[in-house]
Please model this.
Amino acid sequence: MTDNKSYGHTHNGTELTEEVLDRMASEAEAGLDLSKLRRRPGRPAMGSGPADTLPVRLDPDLRRAVNERAAAEHTTASDVVREALRRYLKAG
Model:
């Protein structure tokens, strides 16, 4: 009798059993056809390379002003800060 242990399901509902995982491992070892793999969307590029985070502290009044501007422009606080830095530094 075989062990029917399940290791979850794929996004389309396929149950991941030992048999399914063994088949997938064999296919991978034989060489994957990369053209058949779906590329997952990620965050959109913001410039010439990968974006970096820069944590900053804002006093409550400045934070409130950023949030108010973001709400008025239907955007995010991050977008407001980036635009302010671009203008101040005359960059990008």
Q: What stands out?
A: Residues 60-89 form one domain. The chain has a mean pLDDT of 87. The chain is about 40% helix and 10% strand.
